[in-house]
Structure formats: C-alpha cells, structure tokens
C-alpha cells in the first residue's frame, strides 16, 4: 500500500512468463504496435508517438527532457514537492537555464499562477509534475498548455503517479509530452516508462537530428551554437525510428517487460478509464473515512488532494518507523514514509491500480488500528475505522 | 538461435511471476545484495561495484561512458564491427574527442596494435568491444589494461555478447569497467545492463560528483572547465549510492527484472563458469562441423572466431531473407541477418546460454538443410550435416 511499486495483477505476472520472442519477429512487432495503440487510449491522445522508453520512469523523464531541451534553453519548473526538484536537476544536466517558482509542500499552484510565470519568464519549455507522490497533491493543468502555445513553448508533464488512476487528458489539456509510470496506477512492474508526444515536440526532435548528422567532438559539442541530443540511449528521435514501421535497430526491446505492459494496458482498457478513475476515488473516500474515524489528521490542503495517495500526519509521540515495521512484519502491509522536510512527519498510503481494492483498504485500516493500539495511541473508538469505511462504501 | 535475444530458461521466466516487493523492503534489498555478489563472480572480479543499470545493454554502455568521459577527453576506440561504431557515437555525445583505429570486418586487432595506438594517442579512456556480434569476432584483451595503466587511462570493455558464455576476466586483464548483456549468454530477458568497475573508475566518478555539487546552468554547464556528469538516470555515482547500504533513493528498481537476473546468475554459477564456457565451445564445434558438411563457408578469420556466434556466407544465388523466413515459419527457428556492409551477405547463428544445447544445434542443422534443399541449393550429401554434428559430439 505504498505509492509504488504496487501489487501487480497475477495476469500481468503470468504474461511475463511467456517465452522471449526475437525483437524483429513479426509476432513481437505486432505486440509492439498493439501496445502503442493502447497507450494512445490511456494517454487520451491522438498522437502518433506513444511508446515505452526502456528504463524506469525516471528514464522517460530524462529522455523527454534531454531530447527537447537544447543547452541554454530557458526552462520553467513549478515546484511543489520532491519530484519538481528532480525535474530541475535533470533539466540542468541537459544544460537548461532553469527558472523555478515554488509553493509550500502540501499545496499546489493555481493554474493562473503558472500561466503568469510563463508570461513573465518566456521559457522555451515548461516541465511540471501532475501528481506529487511526496506530498500527495494533484496539480491542475488546464489552461497551462494554451499559455505555452502563446509563446511557442513546449509543455512537459510528469504523470508518472497519475496515469491509469487519475484523468490525464493529453490532447484536451494541450500537453506536448507526457511521461507515465508503470509501477503505480498501471500496476505493471517498474522497468518501462511510457511516453507520448505530439507534432510540436517531434518538430524539435527532427530539427536536432538534422544538426547531429555532422556530429561534433570535444569542446565544440558543447558550443551552444551546436545542439545535438546529448544521449544516444534516451534520444527520442532514434527511439521513434525503432518504434516506426522502419524498425531501425536501436536497443533490444525489453521483451518481457513489454508483455507485462501490454497485459497491464489491456486490463486498464477492459475496466475502462472512467470506471477505473471512479474506483480510485471510491477507495480513497473509504480510506479517508476510516483514517478520520481513527482520529488521524490528513496532511496537506484537501482541495488539491491526489486521489491515489493519502498522507497522514504521524501522531505526536508515535515512532512512525516502528509503526511501519510492525505493519510489514505482522500484517505484510507496506506503507511509505516521505522525503526531505516531511521525513518522519507523515505516512503515505497508496491506493493505486491493482492494490486499490476494498479488501486492501479494509485490511489496511484494521491493521493500522491494531498497530496504533500496540503503540499505546489513544483512539477515539477502537473498531471505528473499519466501520466508517464500510459506511462509506454503503453510501457510495 | 540469433545472437540475442535468446531463449530464457523456464526457471528464469517463472521467477518473473513472483509478486512485486517494495524497493526498500528488506527482503528485496537482500535480493539486490545477492545479485551483486553473484555478478562479482560472473565478472571474475573483486570489485566492490557490480550491479545492473535499469535499461537494455546500451544503457549500461552509456552509463559507463557518460560517467567516465569528461567533455573534451580524448577517447580511443578500436573498431572492427558495428558495435565499435556505437561506442564512438556514444562517446562523441558525451563530448569526447574520439580517436579511432579500424580493422576490416571479419578480423580483430592484435593486442599489440591497440597497445601501440594507446602509446601513440595517449587517450584518457579506451573503449573496446570484446565480442562483436555483427561479425562474430572475439577481440583478445590481454595486455591492453597494462598499457592503459602506464598512461593512467581507463579501459572500458563492452562484454555484452560474451559475459556468461566466454571468459571475461575483469581483474586478470586489468579492465576498469565492464558492461555485460542479459539477453545473450546469461539468457535473461533484455532490460537490465550489469556493469562492474574498479576503484580507478570510481575515483573519477567521485571527483566529478564533487564538481557537480555546485550545478551550473545554461552555457556554463558546457564549459569544459566544469564537467559534471550530463545524465541523472545513468549517473553511476548516484546508482552506486542506491546500491550501497545507504540505499539513497534514485529510480525504483525494476523488481521483476531483478528477480530474473538473480535467477539467471544463480543458474550460471550452479553450472560453473568453466563448465559453461566448455559447453559453448562444444556446441560451436558441432554446429561448425555440420555447416561445413553442408558445404557452407564460414565468414571471417577463423583464428578470432567468437565461440557463441557463427557467421555463414550466404551461398551465391540464394535469397538469404527467404531462407530466414522459411526457417521461422516452418520450423520456428530464428537466425539473424547482419548490418551495414554485411547485410544480405551473411547469416548469423547464436549458440548462447540456454539456447546453446545439443538439441537446438541438431534441429537447426536439420532445418537449415531442409530449407536450403527447398531453395534448390546443391548440397554435397543431404543428411550429412546432422551426421557430422553427431560425430563431433562423439569425438568430443
């Protein structure tokens, strides 16, 4: 019950036991094409390009940034938690001149604040986190894409934690490139990073590819006048050739991980995106009802709470790590701590994908209550948490 | 029967069906430590650092090069096939001033030729392919490490195609960093890239890490006077912190792929490295005997043939792609074509890891003979190939 990696559907695990096909075997390239088609649906986009980068979510973020940022480009990053800082670090390593705006952890930006910053700083690219797992907040994105288009900037969204659990409307919101995560709401093991990007982003890739035809060496390669993509492995212009009908050889696709992603996406679409988002909200409501019945305080501004991560203030005098250990050792339930300024201050419970079930919510509430009693916490009414959750399901 | 990806042992496939553990769950970090320990044995090294990068083999190559090459560094790459060119391309994107020496495809360098080039060019780093799958050649490496140490250069070896099938003596040969592949002789699906490196390589990482503490922006980041590592995802200094007892959070380890690698390594060590190398040589001998009995000519200099890849000249007048298709469609056997100047000129058969069995060699010979007869090839004596292979096993 962490915000990832989460439990994986046994059907996905079983798909990983299929024999390995050759990467250019027509049966395998057929699976690649099916995966692209399903990714378009999950990203809610008509983009031609929607495929996984072979690495963990972070590899997808870096692939998008290293491919779209030219050294010296001004990049705007709104930060409201840890993963905003990661975007800054990666963008800087790509040679960007990074401008940041910051919000206190536990809150998010009003979309208009980001729009104002875009108009004020005139960046070439804006990179923003959709769902911050470190703080459990969800950043509204509507309107930001339009502001980027006004000044011909690209909008990049890190939807690692939200894809498949919370609406990510790539086209409707005018997002130029999105990175999704597998090991969270898609409930596929970590190891692939689905990305999608539109024609505006592709135009930048193709321009840079032309530059790089005459590859430069030594210090010259770092002359801002010459700006090829500084990675081979994460170069989206090469990756799209590999995923195109031309199948230009690049890496050897991670066969087994692709089987897993394809099966995971199939299950998402079988459930239906709207039904899946509703399931995540329903489980969240029951979990929150139970936690509140225990007298626990939720962390952060409730108006921008992310439905798939619930952050709880660790009660005064309770050893948060001891509670986590006992949950794991006695009940086999893992919940998360947090990072940086929140380390030791909050617990985080994920209700994501396959883990997001009535059974898991009820068991987690019951177990947490038992562990808190063992830690001599005063609870308003022992037994109330599960009852409150059951009531929430009934009124749903 | 390609030079990768190859068949995977069912025990490895089964290991991938285990439920996903949390990345900091002590049970999972225990598996990470076991994997490091087994990688040290397979790389034949006492190095502290031996762990997988989360991506395909190419990600491991780029991680080593981007972490060890500072922009402006002179890098020497001996090229004798396609994957030498890949090392050049990646090194250039890392900002290296690349110097190359080249050998005709189908041959390799005498170690002394590389040593002379090292003395002549005085590079900071030498990157060389151990086994070239594009041409089926094996580059001798003894003596090169000593020459690198004389001038304080680092030696990086791409052992993607050889690790687990052919001896890769990291310490004995004085190699500073080695990249192995999973989907070849280790017979684990593509998606992780095991690397190892010694204290000399680590010293360079740590120096660069200190530089990068004060991360620079814009054009300054590309000033050769400031040389931080230009990737976050592939920064070995961060990866080693994640794999150290400190477990500093970086990516979310690709859980299922790690299960697969651990099981694959366990099977390698259960068989024993020497026994495994001998098995690969035995199957190669039988395959070669069978091919020669069919009257087929092997491609390349036999004195540097790589035991795990056998390249065959496509006979005059035969459509190589039609033969490959019929082998796949009628017999379910995939063999490979090749790249660049060898496209359409040779077939390549891999005898790697789990695929490298008597059964597979005999079936491939029988099937190839049948398909060549269908293509109206004149064979010296139909039926001779399998007989010759059986004889080779008997005299073994």
UniProtKB/TrEMBL annotation, chains A, B:
Q: Say if the entry is tagged with keyword Ligase.
A: no
- InterPro entries named among the record's database cross-references: Aminotrans_V_dom (IPR000192), PyrdxlP-dep_Trfase (IPR015424), PyrdxlP-dep_Trfase_major (IPR015421), PyrdxlP-dep_Trfase_small (IPR015422), SP_NH2Trfase/AEP_transaminase (IPR024169)
List keywords of the entry alphabetically. Answer: Aminotransferase, Pyridoxal phosphate, Transferase
Question: Sorted alphabetically, which Gene3D superfamilies does this protein's record hold?
Answer: Aspartate Aminotransferase, domain 1, Type I PLP-dependent aspartate aminotransferase-like (Major domain)
Domain Aminotransferase class V, residue spans: 25-337
Q: Which cofactor does it need?
A: pyridoxal 5'-phosphate
**A Pfam family matched in the record:** Aminotran_5
UniProt binding sites for substrate: 348
Q: Which residues carry this modification: N6-(pyridoxal phosphate)lysine?
A: 184
One annotated GO molecular function: L-serine-pyruvate transaminase activity
Q: Output this protein's name.
A: Alanine--glyoxylate aminotransferase family protein
Specify the taxonomic lineage. Answer: Bacteria, Bacillati, Bacillota, Bacilli, Bacillales
């Amino acid at each position: 019950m962490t915000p990832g990696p989460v439990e994986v559907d046994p059907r996905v695990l079983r798909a990983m036991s299929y024999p390995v096909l050759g990467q250019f075997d027509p049966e395998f390239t057929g699976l690649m094409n099916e995966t692209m088609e399903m990714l378009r649906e999950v990203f809610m986009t008509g983009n031609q390009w929607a495929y996984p980068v072979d690495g963990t979510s972070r590899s997808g973020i870096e692939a998008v940034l290293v491919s779209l940022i030219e050294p010296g480009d001004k990049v705007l990053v709104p930060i409201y938690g840890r993963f905003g800082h990661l975007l800054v670090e990666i963008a800087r390593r790509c040679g960007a001149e990074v401008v940041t705006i910051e919000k206190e952890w536990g809150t998010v930006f009003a979309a208009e604040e980001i729009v104002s910053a875009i108009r004020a700083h005139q960046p070439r690219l804006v990179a923003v986190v959709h769902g911050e797992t470190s703080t459990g907040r969800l950043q509204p994105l509507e309107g930001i894409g339009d502001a980027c288009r006004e000044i011909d900037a690209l909008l990049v969204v890190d939807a690692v934690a939200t894809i498949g659990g919370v609406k990510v409307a790539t086209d409707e919101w005018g997002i130029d490139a999105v990175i999704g995560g597998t090991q969270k709401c898609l409930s596929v093991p970590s190891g692939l990073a689905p990305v999608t990007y539109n024609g505006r982003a592709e135009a930048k890739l193709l321009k840079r590819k032309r530059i790089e035809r005459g590859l430069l060496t030594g210090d010259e390669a770092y002359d801002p006048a010459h700006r090829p993509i500084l990675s081979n492995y994460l170069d989206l212009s090469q990756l799209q050739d590999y995923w195109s009908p031309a199948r230009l050889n690049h890496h050897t696709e991670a066969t087994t991980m692709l089987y897993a992603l394809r099966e995971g996406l199939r299950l998402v679409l079988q459930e239906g995106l709207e039904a899946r988002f509703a399931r995540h909200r329903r489980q969240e409501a029951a979990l929150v009802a139970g936690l509140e019945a225990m007298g626990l305080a939720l962390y952060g501004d409730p108006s921008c709470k992310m439905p798939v991560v619930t952050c709880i203030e660790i009660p005064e005098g309770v050893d948060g790590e001891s509670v986590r250990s006992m949950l794991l050792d006695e009940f086999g339930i893992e919940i998360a701590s947090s990072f940086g300024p929140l380390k030791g201050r909050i617990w985080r419970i994920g209700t994501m994908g396959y883990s997001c079930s009535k059974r898991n919510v009820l068991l987690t509430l019951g177990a947490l209550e038992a562990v808190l009693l063992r830690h001599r916490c005063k609870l308003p009414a022992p037994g109330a948490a599960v009852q409150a959750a059951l009531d929430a399901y009934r009124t749903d």
